[in-house]
Structures
1.
Amino acid sequence: MNTHDLLSDDGLAMLLLCSAFGTASPAPPDVPGPFTLSEWNQLARKIHASSLQRPGALAGQSAVALARDLRLAPDEAERIARLLGRSGRVAIELDSLFSRGLWVSTRVDKSYPTRLRETLKHQAPTVIFGAGERTLLSGRNVAVVGSRNIDPAGAAFAQEFAREAVSEGLAIVSGGARGTDLLAMNAALDAGGKSVGVLADSLERTIRTPEMRQLLLDRRVVLVTPYAPTAGFSVGLAMGRNKVIYGLAELALVVSSEHEKGGTWAGAVEALKAAWCPVLVRTSDDAPQGNRELLKRGALPLAKPHVPTVGELAASQSTAVPFAPVAQELFAVGET
């Protein structure tokens, strides 16, 4: 597969600037770190306002020219020039990535999931890596999230909801972690449906199991991560991928959440504040305190494990948090 099959010139520049992909691990101390999401959003505004206009136009520019055209400090311009200078090595790594059945997409590429870009806007990951059927990312998905150590009643609720979603032609999107995530995703697959896994750790390791490879070949699963394909697990990475789960979903169900701690709570609160999608919570008598507290923050109650209709959602949304607009992507997608 040729690099330009998935990455535009703008996308390749974004990959070079915003990802450590192609850098030796551990990175040598003199290698500049990639731009964080907030740093990229600031740089993107400077590129858009400059004569360069687009990220792809930065390629081949000297640090002196970048400092002049983008009104940057010399050290920041040098950082950009050195990151872009990795293009040869990254091209080789991309060929290897594609040969292993993985792919990459950036926020300015046509291959990037439309729902994720439109929902999260400037908070969408600059780069995502994946394996499997990419069209599932733009299909009709509902998210199911919850605790790793879930109670039997919660486990049954998650599984029944997943089966109901499959019967409605929906795919389940979740984090692929032990507990609620895997219970819901596996229930969907067992019912003949499809699943989207948003990973916080090694994508490469996950696709090596024979069972997962077969699911990928059958186009029943797609796996994505906003981190490098070899990244190991950390709590920070798990927290950071939460927004991708919500960003890919029409609605999300919180099966079980602790109160004011843990990734499930943090992700749900963030989603409610940003109004990324309707957030439902299980409201059975044995639901944990976190579920009840999320209702106070604008989540919608779900007493039985079924996918609510549009009318049912509308009737429940009188207490929802108002939508808070966020900035649009500055660059038109796929022009280069």
2.
Amino acid sequence: MRTLQTPSPESPPAHGDAPAIRCRGLHKRFGDTVAVKSLDLEVRRGECFGLLGPNGAGKTTTIEVLEGLQERDGGELEVLGMRWDRDASAIRARLGVQLQESEFYDKSTVEEAVRMFRSFYPRGPRVDALIGFVQLDEKRRTQVKNLSGGQRQRLSVACALAGAPDVLFLDEPTTGLDPQSRRQLWDVCEAFRAGGGTILLTTHFMDEAEHLSDRIAILDRGEIIAQGTPAELIRALGGDHVVEFASTAQIEDDALSALPGVSRVGSRGESRLLTVAALHTAVPALLDLVAARGGDLTALSTHHATLDDVFLALTGRGLRDE
């Protein structure tokens, strides 16, 4: 795994052991629309913290307020122990920001783009090191207009790392990318974190959040509705598996809840969802219940419980539902 080396002298960490990000009662509205509502959040140094939620949940607004791109309407906010209203220049020097969409001059090469961003900072890794870190060595002389979507995103991350930031903000970095490009960008994130960096990641891909994040906050309509490690959030469902089925029989929720090992009953469209502890006891019992009601199964599938199931249980809709 590649690491980024920053030439000495090193700048001292800001405000000692203060969390990378701390906010209390953070509030942001646009006219009559409340985008972020009384948000409490603490991101520890050296972790990857994921903000998970569907489009419109408030993820991008939250991250823009934390980055200083939007002014908050209420609440308290500290970044690396500093405040935007009095330490803006010092904070900006310690942050790396990768936006949902980044624009580069199409005719510039990868090396030229990275060199320009590196020139904005008094300290940071060498241009060659930045290009190598995001695995674009073979594309260093390629013009931006000829890069793939995944290569453009990795170039954007290289530019965000040009000032050797303590905190890296990634706003839905893999939206629209193919699976291989997503994995390559995940590798870059993991390498940055392994070097001691802190990441705040927004995404509506539950697998991305589960793979990269040490801890996660699930947002819905501007509020945090659950927070913890991926394992803690999934464990809160009360079972390791989810049974999804459809049937011609009319079965009330109470009857399904009474099946052995069932901890939660829900629905997704026309399908019913059962969170269960053990498939080998729950599925036969379900089959017997359907038969006893004189019906037939029209669909049946099982899967390990995921963060998508957590969000569905909390809100009644899926993470990718618009």
3.
Amino acid sequence: MAASFEGLFSIQGKVALVTGGSRGIGEMIAAGFVAQGARVYISSRKAAACQATAARLAADHGGSCTALPADLSTMAGVEALAMALAEREPRLDILVNNAGASWGAAIDDFPEAGWDKVMDTNVKAVFFLTQKLLPQLRAAAAGPSPARVVNIGSIDGLKNSMFEAWSYGASKAAVHHLTRFMAGHLTRERILCNAIAPGPYPTWMLSTGVGFGGRTEGVDWDSVGSRNPSGRVGTAQDIAGLATFLCSRAGEYVVGQVIASDGGIVASA
């Protein structure tokens, strides 16, 4: 029998949760998922921003997007988000652990608070949110397609950063290894775990680092992209396309990988 390639990249009808989904890379991935017919939930710490983004994505792309605000820097926030999702959905096909924080300071002045906040949000929350949502992930995995966990790391976890964000780079390296560890234990349950390591994208976080003051519109992203081998920063299609691949039938044999989405920065370093 000839192989069928129908719906190879489809995520139509899947249930997805994207943390840190109110802006930046999380919003880009959520937008792509909504546009492709997934039932999407987004979380972020600020409730008003989360609700506004969810409403805008649903209107812009004619799909389903629901806000579940939560502060994932605390265990109480992690547990509240897991409970809120479980109250609405018996299964979770896709979990994108994107919520993150950064802190910049010279090594002589770097504070303990900056270390703990970043590690709690970027590493601890990834592990414990996945743990708390295992019942829903296992329910999805019992269906025709494996469940997926996509952890968002960073190229700063693959190479040295130009910024003095000590805990951020260390946290993202930890996310990459945690992803491999999770894959080693969860693949046999048909829960497939991978990580994406983004490079420069036009996000609030990068904007603050390159001197744009958090603005993402009306600023010179071309100057940032000019230092990239590809000559540009990433787009929503770039990051949503990779996430979609990993969560579709096309990516079903890709397990435990850390994939850079950076225009060639790591390859040329």
4.
Amino acid sequence: MKHFFLGTVSAATLALSALSAQAADTTLRISLQLPLKSHLGQNLVLFKDEVEAASNGDIAVEIYDSAQLYKDNEVPQAVGSGSIEMGVASLTRYVGDAPIVDIFYQPFLLDSEEKVRKAVAPGSPVRGPIDAAIAETGSTVLWWQAYGGAIMLSNGGPIKTPEDLKGKKVRVFSKTLGDFVEAAGGAPTVISGSEQYLAYQRGTVDVGMTGVSGVQSRSLWEVMDTITVTNNADIEFIVVVNTDFWNGLPEEHREIIMAAAKKAEDTVRDEMSNIEANAYAASVENGMTIYTPTPEEMAAWKQVAQPVYDIFVEKTGETGKAMLEAAQGF
């Protein structure tokens, strides 16, 4: 029995994937907003290769990158409803259903690799409640994809302190990051990752917030000239599968997929520091200036952050409070 959902894709795309899909018992289509050359795209390629090899072609994996099918903010509904089998979304795209996901965007909370690894460990007091909450949306989390620390992008000089952010329009990708920008005196605008290049190019915003790997994969050095290394949040993406589809798969197929998912998760986590280092180097090679705030400047950033924590606890109640306390203890 074949397991797949039909969606609207181009004839050319269908033709390219027809051979592998026809030969397979199970077809997994994955929506990705980033280019395939990005490290998240390459992580999906690793997953695809592992699954197809281990299943001897019984499972076909098709990757639709660069938001061909769905934008980042459309993935939770598309996967949860079964319009597509799998998708990659920024964790914060689930904040409407599960406000606790924005624990990862609390300013400077998870500001080291050691803390992040403790937070994202399966079943941890931080990740556990999030995976459970996302399960309520009709999707099952297969693996988490590391994306690194948040940075700020600007033109004409760095954003050294909150004073430099005052009155500036800032691209953010979560409400909590927006709360942080507002606390620092800026004006946040939520813009999808796939649309930020044009936002910078057109001057829709003055400052950007993203991960440095995104600067490289999206060639953002063409529209911004300075990176300020604030590391004010940990950016995580998740790969989800429609739960009804997942439960309908043969057990042996689920085992193959889970083994590949674990390898993909471990690989991207272990490679993240090198990925960021290479992205910083590429940014410099393409004319960008990298600025690291001084301890005094970082203290000024952290000083304006407290209201963001208060808002998080107010929105998430006892569950969020317990998660915050656990993260502060890492």
